[in-house]
């Protein structure tokens, strides 16, 4: 190839790149809303209008995976990324776990010699996951939170929040002089309060290994020391669960939400779906005297004659 030919090719490439640049610069406003606020997306390389969300330009390169999946199982099998980090595990789920299945990469059973070797590796892997007493205590506390949360049937978000609260208490040295179970239970109760999950101290103490008095005392201490802003529990959040356990209708639930605060007994009477004070007291975990006194106060305040 001669020198003039190479020079002409370079000039052609330069002119082409200049034309592309001019085309890019010419797109100064959105063709839909005429807005000039056009931004380029960093993840997909698209030119997007901030005003109306129109994609003005898009890249031809697909940043997604090269494989296709048509259901959840196929996505799980073909995905090559690990599980997300979680606060519910002492190592945040970043360590390697040796599978309990004695099979190789092709799903074939391994020999007895290899099985014995895998057994020893699992044993040592479990031992070295915690490097000191502090990590072992954290592992025990987080497993207690997970156990109690499972028994209470609370969502995953509550477990994450409880684990974060416990880690903060551990970092601030609030565990000293207190039982690990007590602080873990108090952290779970605080997480239920923050996430708006209606669980009383009595319910928490039923699944815990410490008594109600210690849980309440520890909860008040860590919430004060950590500056946890706890709003008062909304009594309306208890109403659906109480009505469900008592097999009451939607009408009773609506009436109870209007009267509120231990008013299921009054609402059931007003709707002719009578329940005894004992039944309501057992579900609400309060005494019959409380139900009776609050009932008399509420019907008097509302001007209702029982």
CATH 4th-level superfamily of the largest domain: Cyclin-like
The biggest beta sheet reads: 3 strands, antiparallel
Spell the H/E element sequence. Answer: HEEEHHHHHHHHHHHH
How many structural domains does the protein architecture include?
3
Q: How many β-strand runs? A: 3
Query: Radius of gyration from the CA trace?
Result: 31 Å
Strand order of the largest sheet: 1-2-3
CATH architecture of the largest domain: Orthogonal Bundle
Q: For the record, what CATH class of the largest domain applies?
A: Mainly Alpha
Describe the structure.
The protein is mostly helical. It is extended, with a radius of gyration of 31 Å. A hairpin with a 5-residue loop joins β2 and β3 (55-57). The N and C termini lie far apart (106 Å). The chain has helices at residues 3-26, 72-78, 112-128, 133-152, 156-171, 180-194, 201-207, 212-225, 239-245, 250-259, 264-270, 277-284, 288-301, and strands spanning 38-40, 47-49, 55-57. The protein folds into three domains: 26-58, N-terminal domain of TfIIb, CATH 2.20.25.10; 87-100 and 112-232, Cyclin-like (Cyclin A, domain 1, Orthogonal Bundle); 235-301, Cyclin-like (Cyclin A, domain 1, Orthogonal Bundle).
Keywords:
306 residues, N-terminal domain of TfIIb, Cyclin A, domain 1, 54% helix, 3 strands, mainly alpha
């Amino acid at each position: 190839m001669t020198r003039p030919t190479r020079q002409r090719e370079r000039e052609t490439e330069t002119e082409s790149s200049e034309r592309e640049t001019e085309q890019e610069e010419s797109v100064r406003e959105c063709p839909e809303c005429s807005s000039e606020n056009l931004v380029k997306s960093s993840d997909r390389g698209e030119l997007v209008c901030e005003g109306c969300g129109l994609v003005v330009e898009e890249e031809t390169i697909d940043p997604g995976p090269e494989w296709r999946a048509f259901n959840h199982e196929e996505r799980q099998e073909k995905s090559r990324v690990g599980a997300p980090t979680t606060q519910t595990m002492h190592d945040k789920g970043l360590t390697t776990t040796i599978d309990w299945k004695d099979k190789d990469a092709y799903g074939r059973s391994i020999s007895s010699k290899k099985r014995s070797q895998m057994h020893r590796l699992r044993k040592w892997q479990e031992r070295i996951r915690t490097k000191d007493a502090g990590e072992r205590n954290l592992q025990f506390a987080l497993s207690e939170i997970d156990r109690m949360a499972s028994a209470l049937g609370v969502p995953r978000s509550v477990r994450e929040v409880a684990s974060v609260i416990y880690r903060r208490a551990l970092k601030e040295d609030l565990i000293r002089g207190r039982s690990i179970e007590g602080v873990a239970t108090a952290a779970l109760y605080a997480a239920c309060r923050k996430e708006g999950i209606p669980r009383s101290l009595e319910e928490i103490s039923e699944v815990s290994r410490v008594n109600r008095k210690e849980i309440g005392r520890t909860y008040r201490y860590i919430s004060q020391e950590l500056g946890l802003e706890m709003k008062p529990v909304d009594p309306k959040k208890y109403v659906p669960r109480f009505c469900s356990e008592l097999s009451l209708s939607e009408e009773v639930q609506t009436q109870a939400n209007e009267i509120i605060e231990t008013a299921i007994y009054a609402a059931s009477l007003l709707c002719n779906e009578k329940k005894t004070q004992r039944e309501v007291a057992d579900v609400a975990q309060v005494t019959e005297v409380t139900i009776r006194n609050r009932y008399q106060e509420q019907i008097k305040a509302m001007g209702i004659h029982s």
